[in-house]
Amino acid sequence: MSILFHDIIFGPVRSRRLGYSLGINLLPTNSKICSFNCIYCECGWTPENIPISKFNARKDVFSELESRLKEIKNNNEPLDVITFAGNGEPTLHPEFSEIVDDVILLRNKYFADKKISVLSNATMLGKTKVLEALKKIDLPILKLDSAIESTFRIINNPPSKFDFNKYINNLSNFKDKIIVQTMFLRSEINGQKFDNTTENELNEWLKIVKPLNPVNVMIYSIDREPSAKNLVKILPDELKLIAGKLKAHNLNVMTAF
Predict the structure, then answer these.
(1) Strands of 179-183's sheet in order across
(2) DSSP string of 152-187, one letter each residue
(3) pLDDT at res. 256
(4) For the stretch 1-25, what's the b/e string if a residue is b when 16 or more beta carbons lie within 10 angstroms of its beta carbon?
(5) Strand 192-195 versus strand 185-189 pairing type
(6) Using an 8 Å Cβ cutoff, are 87 and 26 in contact?
(7) Bridge partner list, 45
(8) Can you give the pLDDT at residue 166?
(9) C-beta of residue 89 within 8 angstroms of C-beta of residue 10
(10) pTM, two decimal places
(11) From the CA atom positions of the chain, what is the Rg in Å?
């Protein structure tokens, strides 16, 4: 059963990686919009041909966020971070850049000491306006589930014409600032076995990630019901072993169980 966020602003919710997070959903409240179709996504499969009018309006995001921030402040509710998340890929919103500026303005007005984060699949880094907006965000958390194209295509299920090499190269735009997020899992999809925890997978991943000099690396496995069936969750003991291998390469690693 897929989980969709039916509000523009949701939470704060307790995040495994971020603490108390106030979510901003720029995508439709009744459907998912994403440039990937990840097999593990809790929001279900990506539908086709969603009209651009389905994105939440900038003015509505502003008014609802301001209203909720006032409530949180008045009620003294716990808050650690404001996060662009929701039903798909937030950077697909046609006014993402302008909304980032709005959120920074409101954060500075009500909670100047709190961080702004984004959970992104990094597919829009080739768009200058999106790239510059992401660079304004305190915690740009960008996805890289595999550095091997065949595994990447099974897990993230991008469009057939997706340029994997360009995607990898675009990550270098965030050298020294990027927070890399990786989902570890294994299974068999349409007769194709995959496992992104193998030594070869980790070595290829390190070849891409180490030169980026990431601020942090977030590793985790399945927590909620995924889109595909029979995916194998990586248990805490194995995640700890993976974290140890990555830390041996002087990477800061956060493991979410």
Answers:
(1) 9-15, 19-25, 81-85, 115-120, 139-143, 179-183, 216-220, 253-255
(2) HHHHH---TT--HHHHHHHGGGGTTT-EEEEE-EEE
(3) 86
(4) eeebbeebbbbbeebebbebbbbbb
(5) antiparallel
(6) no
(7) none
(8) 97
(9) no
(10) 0.93
(11) 18
Whole-angstrom distance, CA of residue 5 vs CA of residue 7: 6
CATH number of the 9-255 domain: 3.20.20.70
**Residue labelled with tokens 């880094």:** 125
Block mean pLDDT (10 aa), the chain, length 257: 81 90 93 89 76 82 98 97 95 98 99 98 96 97 98 95 96 93 93 94 97 96 80 94 96 91
* Cross-strand partners of 217: 180, 253
Cα-Cα-Cα-Cα dihedral of 17, 137, 127, 212, to 10°? -60
Q: How far apart are CA 256 and CA 230, in angstroms?
A: 21
Using the Cα atoms of residue 9, residue 2, residue 93 and residue 132 in order, give the sign of their dihedral: positive
